[in-house]
């Protein structure tokens, strides 16, 4: 993936996150039209999944992995997070007439994007380096699930429960994949 591709991925991610939030809230013009429907409940699940810190971190790590080289991965992930932040707030301004924290999140996202993009590039490495890099997102998701579970304060907790199951299952599967890959590579290196 090139840097321009990372920017496009970020633009799509940020826009989808904002739209999912708008769909899930009965207080906005979009969500009010579908309040109480299956679309609103699905929108709430998607919103809880996309509008979470671990999800934005996963965006940066995946972009870093796709770009591959550490320096370009860092720049690509930073660009993806910056594009996601800008598109999130542009769509928010259009859909909600809101969005005042963009600069704050850009200040946070740029340095984190650089670090998380480099982590994504390290996922390709063999040994403990690749293992630890591959565990960053699932461990981060698990920590966030414990510290800030999705949907706190929602009246209807069913979407939050669905989102929690998806996050825990994803974290478990990602961890199993990372550990399995680590042990397969280790066995292969031992036999050569």
TrEMBL record:
Signal peptide per UniProt: 1-20
Parts of the chain that traverse the membrane: 46-67, 74-91, 103-123, 130-148, 160-179
Organism for this UniProt entry: Streptomyces lannensis
The protein, known as: Integral membrane protein
Keyword field: Membrane, Signal, Transmembrane, Transmembrane helix
Superkingdom of origin organism: Bacteria
Keyword Transmembrane: yes
């Amino acid at each position: 993936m090139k840097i321009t591709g990372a920017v496009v991925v970020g633009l799509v991610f940020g826009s989808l996150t904002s739209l999912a939030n708008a769909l899930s809230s009965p207080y906005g013009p979009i969500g009010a039209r579908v309040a109480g429907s299956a679309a609103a409940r699905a929108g709430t699940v998607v919103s809880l999944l996309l509008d979470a810190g671990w999800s934005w971190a996963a965006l940066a790590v995946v972009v870093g992995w796709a770009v591959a080289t550490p320096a370009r991965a860092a720049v690509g992930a930073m660009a993806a997070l910056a594009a996601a932040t800008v598109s999130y707030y542009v769509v928010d301004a259009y859909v909600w007439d809101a969005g005042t924290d963009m600069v704050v999140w850009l200040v946070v996202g740029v340095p984190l994007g650089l670090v998380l993009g480099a982590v994504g590039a390290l996922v390709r490495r063999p040994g403990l380096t690749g293992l630890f890099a591959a565990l960053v997102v699932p461990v981060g998701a698990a920590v966030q699930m414990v510290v800030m579970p999705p949907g706190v304060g929602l009246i209807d907790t069913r979407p939050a429960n669905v989102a929690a199951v998806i996050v825990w299952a994803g974290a478990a599967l990602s961890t199993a994949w990372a550990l399995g890959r680590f042990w397969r590579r280790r066995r292969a290196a031992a036999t050569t």
